[in-house]
Each structure stands twice: as C-alpha cells, then as structure tokens.
Design a protein that fits this description.
CATH superfamily of the largest domain: Response regulator
Strand content: 5-15%
Distance between the termini: 19 Å
Strand order of the largest sheet: 2-1-3-4-5
Number of strands: 5
Radius of gyration: 17 Å
Structural class: alpha/beta
Number of domains: 2
CATH topology of the largest domain: Rossmann fold
Shape: globular
CATH architecture of the largest domain: 3-Layer(aba) Sandwich
Length: about 220
C-alpha cells in the first residue's frame, strides 16, 4: 500500500467513550484514516462495510467473556490485518496475540501516542513495536531458538528493514523467489521447534526474542 493511500478501519470495542476517542485520533491523522464501522461485536468485521476495511482494531476483552483469542485467530486466518488494542498489559497475552498472527499488540494506555502509527503500519504490512510490546519481547528470551544459517538471518533482517521483498532481492543481489525460499525455511525451522511464525509481525517477535535484532533496529 502507498504511503499516501487512504486507510480504512473497522473498530471493535464495547466502550462508547473509547470509540469516540479512537475516531478523533484517526480524524487528526495526517494520512486519511476512515472508520468504516464500529461496535462492540466482532461481527462488525465480517459484514459490510466493516468486511472491506484494511485494518481491524480489536479490543481483546469484549463484555464479561474471556479474551477474544478465537476471534483473533479467525480474522487472521481470513487474511485480515488485526491490531489488538487492550487494557491487558501482561506479557503472556501480548505474546499469545502475536503467536496467533496479530499485526501488533497495543495497550490502551499507549493509544493516544501509538494507535495511528500502529494502524498505518498494519495497513502497509510493516512491523510496529510499541513500548509495552517491546518490553514483553525483551523480557521473554527463549532457549528453543532454531539454528538459522547466516544467509537466512541476513534475508530475515533485511526483510524487516525493507518495504518489499523486491527491495530485499535488489539489496542482496538475489531473486524474489530466493527471498521467499529463505523466509519459508525460517518459518519451517521455527515451526519445527514449536514456535510457529506465520506473519511478518510474528517473525519480528521471534527475532527480538532470539536476539537477532534489537528494537532500535526496527
């Protein structure tokens, strides 16, 4: 997506005051962000006009029920870009959402400063690392790190820092097909140690956990 192209969002949150605040922050964005639909049910993301939104902003805790991990998984499986926006600030919840394929995890206390940036990054399929998520990843070093080759690490890190796989191929002097091959190998290796990473955001999380990159590199 172009850096100047308008972005559309469906907002899933059951607090009217929070919905009003989100819409005001989006309206003040330098890049056009339109809320196509908003409401307290995930159904808003599946029906028109919300089904056409570029980004789903999902409150993880709707009503008195359990965290909406199942709804998050269904949206990700359908190819939606989901930003989880939650009152919960514990490490386990944030990492679970990334494992399920969320584009990023944002706490509501970070919203005013980071919500617009996180939404635009999700629309552009770029990683976004707000402070609370960066802290959770930094504190969650893993011992089950797969053995990546130096070339696999190079391709992975270059992809994190590039806008497209085409640009990665150009910078490394390889083809896009070769870039995809290396990234597929990395995903297979992570899956084989029980740490699947289906999305770019998930791979960023794995790389941070394993010390392949620092938050400042992103």
């Amino acid at each position: 997506m172009s850096d100047n192209r308008p972005v559309s969002v469906v907002v899933i949150d059951d607090h009217p005051a929070i919905l009003a605040g989100i819409e005001a922050w989006y309206a003040a964005s330098a890049r056009s962000i339109t809320v196509l639909a908003a409401g307290g049910s995930v159904r808003e993301a599946w029906i028109e006009p919300g089904s056409a939104a570029d980004v789903v902003l999902l409150d993880l805790q709707l009503g008195q029920g359990p965290p909406a991990f199942g709804s998050l998984r269904q949206l990700v499986d359908a190819g939606r870009q989901v930003v989880v926006y939650s009152m919960r600030d514990d490490e386990k919840t944030a990492l679970t959402c990334l494992d399920l394929g969320a584009a990023t995890y944002l706490t509501k206390s970070e919203g005013r400063e980071h919500l617009v940036g996180a939404t635009l990054a999700a629309a552009d399929e770029r990683p976004y690392m707000p402070p609370a998520l960066a802290g959770a990843l930094g504190a969650n070093a893993r011992g089950d790190r797969p053995q990546l080759s130096l070339r696999e690490e190079d391709v992975l890190i270059e992809w994190f820092q590039s806008e497209s796989k085409e640009l990665v191929a150009q910078r490394l002097g390889i083809t896009v097909r070769t870039v995809n091959t290396y990234l597929d190998r990395v995903r297979i290796k992570y899956a084989n140690v029980g740490r699947p990473a289906r999305t770019k955001a998930s791979l960023v999380a794995r790389a941070l956990q394993d010390g392949l990159v620092d938050v400042d590199d992103l």
